Amino acid sequence: MRDEKRGARTMRIAARWMSGAVVVLGLMQGSHRAAAQAGDAGRGSGTAVAEGFDVQRIGRDVYAVIRREPESLAVQSNSVFIVRERDVVVVDAQFTRAATSAVIGALRRITPKPVRYVVNTHWHDDHTAGNQVYRERFPGVEFIAHENTRADLATLGRDNRTGQVEGIPAFLARLRRLMAQGLGADSTAISPSERAALTSASRIGGRYVAEAPGFRETLPTIAFRDRLVLTGGGRTVVLRWFGRGNTRGDAVVWLPDEKIVATGDLVVAPVPFAFNSYPAEWIAALDSVAALGASTIVPGHGPVMHDDSYVVRVARMLTAICNGTASAKARGETAEQAAREVTLEADRRAIAGDDKWMNVLFRQFFLAPAVARAYAEAPAPH
Prior knowledge:
Elements: H1 2-22, E1 47-50, E2 53-59, E3 62-67, E4 79-83, E5 88-91, H2 97-110, E6 115-119, H3 125-128, H4 131-137, E7 142-146, H5 147-180, H6 192-211, E8 222-224, E9 227-230, E10 237-241, E11 251-255, E12 260-268, H7 279-291, E13 296-301, H8 309-330, H9 335-341, H10 345-352, H11 356-377
Parallel strand pairs: 5-6, 6-7, 7-8, 12-13
Antiparallel strand pairs: 1-2, 2-3, 3-4, 4-5, 9-10, 10-11, 11-12
Helix pairs in contact: 1-5, 2-4, 5-6, 7-8, 8-9, 8-11
């Protein structure tokens, strides 16, 4: 019983860490340092392989930086490079300055052109903490975000960062003690995928804390409301806000000529994360993403996609959650009762299978917070 209580406590701490935007997603185990070995191979079509991320050419002078850390409590954000005639537009920075510097190093192997704009898709630190590095390397750079994101970075972001820097060391120390005993975050036997994920999270979280004394807040300098179009430089870059979703300021970057879209954390694969989200509005935002008809989708975390099937699946799961919780609330049931009824078992089996860590992610970092938020949003019974 004591181990169960300790495990539950550790997972609650992990959940708070995740909801504070430390969570990022990737596909394979890697390092946060990403000291690239891409060389000239990064200039062609194909994939430039680096330690911790891959650089994939996804269009004419458009590149996706796709992380390879395992899915965990702390990883780094994907990025996109849009190379124009005289400069570069970058979508999202990373969680640590070391990782952001490595991504800039990969950009430098593609082009010597300066970065003119960095788009922050939302306020979470894993997409914004590296802004400082772009400011230091490119003095003329502008940072663009939705107006809600700019406001949240100056409020939620600051409070969140303070809490993370204060709380992560003790959490990581406990996590390492458990792992040394062959236990996972829930105090049960650790699985291989869980060990890889938590080891990666420990490295990245530790790096984040180590960098904290030198952190300099770098807020967006340009904010938009519904739409902003960057023209010139031989291409059109459209920034859209489709309403609240994963956060209240999710920006989508759309290249209409290339049919490429970067979604930020409106799309995260293979498990979405729903802390502090807006499930009903998130569905509408995903419908708007799908309506673009993109041939290439770059999620905030996870692999490049070439159809909208996953986007549709996430919208369907959120719809089931919203409908199920609304029905439960209308019957006078509590949030706890609704959570026991809305399980998405078929989706859980398809996404997580029998993998312990994937089931933790699905149940505790997507399903539970989504159900709680959807229940809170549902109208009270008459």
